[in-house]
């Protein structure tokens, strides 16, 4: 398995990442693309960001 893309997942914009999402393929190229971080919550810790809401819809 070769990793193709990686994306860090932050609970809030000012907090460190807690998870990293990887997309890997079997017998793929060795190129790795690091995507911009995914921030789960905005200023309000209980409200999801627009990007998270779009993913969940």
Task: Show the helix and strand layout.
Elements: E1 2-12, E2 19-25, E3 33-34, E4 38-41, H1 50-56
Parallel strand pairs: 1-3, 1-4
Antiparallel strand pairs: 1-2
Structure overview:
- This protein is mainly beta and 57 residues long.
- The protein has one helix spanning 50-56; strands spanning 2-12, 19-25, 33-34, 38-41.
- Strand 1 and strand 2 form a beta hairpin.
- The radius of gyration is 13 Å and the shape is elongated.
Give me the number of helical elements: 1
The average pLDDT value, as a whole number, equals 91
Radius of gyration, in Å, reads: 13 Å
- N-end to C-end Cα span: 30 Å
Write the element-wise H/E pattern from the N-terminal end onward.
Answer: EEEEH
Task: Give a quick account of the main beta sheet: strands, pairing sense, barrel closure.
Answer: 4 strands, mixed
The count of β-strands is 4
SS-based class: mainly beta
Helix content: 10-25%
Q: Provide the low-confidence segments as ranges.
A: none
Give the overall form.
Answer: elongated
